[in-house]
Amino acid sequence: MRLIRRTLAVGAVAVLALTACGNSDTTSSSSSGNGLEKTTLKVGTIPVPDSAPLQVAIDRGFFKAEGLEVQPEVVAGGAVATQKLLGGSLDLSLGAYVGTFLAQDKGVGKFKYVADSYGAAPGAFVIMVKKDSPIKTVADLKGKTIAVNVLNSVSQLTAEVQMKVAGVTATPSQFVEKKFPDMPPALESGQVDAAAMTEPVITVESKAGGRIIVDEMTGPTENLPIAGWFTTDAIASKYPKAIAAFQRALGKAQALVAKDRKIVEETLPKYTKIDAATAAVISLGSYPTSLSETRLQRVADLMKEYGYLKNDLDVKSMILPPPAS
Amino acid sequence: MEHARVLRGAAGVAGFLAAAEIVGATGLIDDRFLPRMSTILRGAAELLVDQEFLADARASLAAWGLGLLLTVAVAVPAGLALGALPPVERAVRPLIEFLRPIPSVAIVPLAILLFSDNLHLRVAVVVYAASWPIVINTIYALRDVDPLAKETLRSFGFGPVSVLLRVALPSAAPFIATGIRVAAGTAIILVISAELLAGGAEGVGIYITEAASGNRMDLMLGAALWAGLFGVLSNTALVAVERRLFRWHDVRTGAAR
């Protein structure tokens, strides 16, 4: 018995010691002159073109100029980012609107978007089939298996919209989850009939003769907002000045990127394994410079219409507008 | 003996690599999806001069080493306590048998909520998953301790803790060491799985996620190859340590290895 107690005590001490040394370096900050509550922000990113403005802001010292140190961290997807924000290991993260709105609707937490990052543009989100597929039109997708990178994501929502426009109804069971790199082999082997792709996989599949059936972002989904930078209500109200500084710095980068695609092409190889040659040819989305309630409301409305949301979502409460500059 | 063993092992590896290359060259597998073995090997070799990968590998190995140390620090005493106190062991056993088969990666989402630091997260899942082989091996090893040796010590007036430390622990040590060796392999799996699932700033799993973003199958598999090599190296090193420390055990059990 005594031995067990001693063991437990040793274990507890070890764990405490570890936690203690971890906490000291994450919250080491505060007094750096400009009154930020926190000078180090851990920010979740996904190695996709959507995150480019963050990398640009880091590279050009925009955060440093605000007295901020931004530590980017790769997250495997929006769901993990949400968990990490709630668990306290991230301060902000890139997050697709559809995923975050779903989480808010389900009561997972209360979230706030602080900046827009990525929007739809022609050619950046498409449904593809393999070279010799019998599928020719969107209507042919009826009852066919379609791969999406995450179930109930913007890819699936917009696929459902495009099918409805074509006069056929999508069923939830026809969508299966596949990571982007797994989509070309899944098409080839017949595991799936079609796949909702983004770059650089679109380029890869096109080179192999794959055909684009439809651009997911046309008609009702044209220019649809895709992803932005978000945090929790709790973090936003705890560190308002740090968040405002983040918004100012990111806004500068966003404005640069919105005007000049070359900057994105140069930046992609720094935080993804998309090389410069590929970066030069892929179809990119847009980089909106303002966080518009009306634009985001479109996403929520579509989600409601297609049964993704149970309740009416108050998009306004999920937006923290950047400070007036 | 020893040389023959190494040679046979090398022949096995070379045979596998050659077979994989031939399968790739004959076009049985589309090399867009599974690159040729030679491409993967070249990718793996290039990673050795890739500063980013080296930093990631260091981070993963650090999490692995720290996790394994903490696992040993927790699991060996726990196993000794349970092995030495059968009533406690009987009480805890159902719980162990319930927790042990839970796939360790399934606790990663829970760990994401509990640990705000990526290193702690990885260390925690390693301790959880890698403790079982050590705890179980230790419990069984203590059951096999020579009763005569224990009685002898007792009759000389040694207390239960002395008996445990002077007879039971040395006698159980080779089995505990085997448990640690198994745990080391489990720990590598868990570190990289946690990185893949939970993300983070650095780690081989993070590198694989980034390689996936660019559809670089060669780099993804090259990194996976290194993860496998880390496992082989740690196993080899631990076997060597076991042989040095427990020569007497091999002699006693007549194990020809």
Note down, in words, how this protein is organized.
- The complex is a heterodimer of chains A (325) and B (257).
- Chain A is an alpha/beta fold.
- Chain A has helices at 2-26, 52-59, 62-65, 78-87, 97-105, 154-165, 183-189, 201-207, 233-238, 240-259, 261-271, 276-281, 293-305; strands at 40-45, 69-74, 92-96, 111-119, 126-129, 146-148, 175-177, 194-197, 211-215, 225-232.
- With 257 residues, chain B is an all-alpha fold.
- The N and C termini of chain B lie close together (9 Å).
- Classes of the chains: A alpha/beta (325), B mainly alpha (257).
- At the A-B interface, α1, β2, α4 and α7 of A face α3, α5, α6, α8 and α9 of B.
List the helices and strands and how they pair.
The complex is a heterodimer of chains A (325) and B (257).
Chain A: H1 2-26, E1 40-45, H2 52-59, H3 62-65, E2 69-74, H4 78-87, E3 92-96, H5 97-105, E4 111-119, E5 126-129, E6 146-148, H6 154-165, E7 175-177, H7 183-189, E8 194-197, H8 201-207, E9 211-215, E10 225-232, H9 233-238, H10 240-259, H11 261-271, H12 276-281, H13 293-305
Parallel strand pairs in A: 1-2, 1-3, 6-7, 6-8
Antiparallel strand pairs in A: 3-10, 4-10, 5-8, 5-9
Helix pairs in contact in A: 2-10, 2-11, 10-11
Chain B: H1 2-25, H2 37-47, H3 51-84, H4 86-99, H5 108-114, H6 118-143, H7 147-155, H8 160-198, H9 204-213, H10 217-245, H11 247-253
